[in-house]
């Protein structure tokens, strides 16, 4: 698994975003999405930002980052929690529709980066036999291609377009980045 980033030594775990101080890599990614300075940003939803994974261990791997950043799912009030989970499923719907995936794996941990974020992994019928039943962190992340606009930009745009055209009330528009 890639290490998103280590905690900022001067920030406390789970802190809300406050100006220049970043508690986690999740805070930093959200700030970059807000500033239209994150090439991995896909689209802004009501609950947060969809971004492509730093390493595309499975083609189309995305994350949902809450905006504002909160420590964990249970820190959200009921309707915000429902919206975050619905937005996470919407990403899965988009990936199923455009990638040929046969299922979606969803994961939320917060152990390495103690801020809410959801991993959304499309899974494919043509994955090697030994890989098909493995959880995504058992895959070889070091061999996975890093996200690049040249390689993954078209897929990023197709995900954004599907979400925007899906008619879902969650989509607020494509990111300005990239």
General description of the model:
The chain has a single domain (25-166), classed as HIT family, subunit A. Helix 2 crosses helix 4. The radius of gyration is 15 Å and the shape is globular. The protein has 4 helices and 6 strands. Strand 1 and strand 2 form a beta hairpin. The chain is of the alpha+beta class and 178 residues long. Residues 1-20 and 174-178 have low confidence and may be disordered. It has a 6-stranded antiparallel sheet with strand order 4-5-3-2-1-6. The chain has helices spanning 25-34, 78-99, 129-132, 149-165; strands spanning 41-45, 48-52, 62-66, 103-107, 118-123, 171-174.
Record the SSE blueprint.
Layout: H1 25-34, E1 41-45, E2 48-52, E3 62-66, H2 78-99, E4 103-107, E5 118-123, H3 129-132, H4 149-165, E6 171-174
Antiparallel strand pairs: 1-2, 1-6, 2-3, 3-5, 4-5
């Amino acid at each position: 698994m890639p290490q998103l980033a280590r905690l900022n030594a001067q920030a406390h775990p789970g802190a809300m975003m406050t100006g220049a101080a970043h508690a986690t890599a999740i805070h930093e990614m959200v700030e970059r999405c807000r500033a239209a300075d994150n090439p991995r940003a896909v689209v802004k939803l009501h609950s947060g930002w969809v971004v492509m994974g730093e390493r595309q261990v499975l083609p189309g791997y995305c994350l949902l980052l809450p905006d504002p950043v909160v420590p964990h799912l249970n820190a959200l009030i009921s309707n915000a929690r429902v919206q975050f989970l619905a937005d996470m499923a919407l990403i899965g719907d988009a990936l199923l529709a455009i990638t040929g995936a046969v299922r979606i794996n969803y994961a939320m941990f917060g152990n390495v980066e103690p801020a809410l974020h959801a991993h959304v992994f499309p899974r494919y019928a043509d994955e090697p036999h030994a890989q098909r039943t493995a959880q995504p962190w058992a895959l070889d992340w070091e061999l996975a291609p890093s996200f690049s606009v040249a390689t993954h930009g078209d897929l990023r745009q197709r995900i954004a377009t599907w979400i925007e055209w899906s008619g879902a009330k969650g989509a607020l528009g494509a990111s300005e980045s990239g």
